[in-house]
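Hi Y.,

Following your request, here is the sequence exactly as I used it, all 79 residues.
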Amino acid sequence: MEELEQAVYNYTKETLLALKKEGLLPHMVQVGNELSNGLLWPYGKVPEYDNIARFVNAGIRAVKEVSKEAGKQISGNFH
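Below is the corresponding structure, written out as tokens. Let me know if you'd prefer a different format.
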């Protein structure tokens, strides 16, 4: 689980940093999409709520870190 959680964090951060490099840092990032059935199956499939929380929180952590490093507020959203 830790490797997948870290992969979510890394992917989110690397994507945002690539966007920043091109002057395209977004004002808002949506972490996850339509999570009612989970994400990253089978590990994040409902009812694996602890894993779902880990994956979503990893993405949120990356957004917050890039936001702080960039000195620009990036709002987070998930649903």
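The helical segments are 2-21, 49-70.

Thanks again,
Q.
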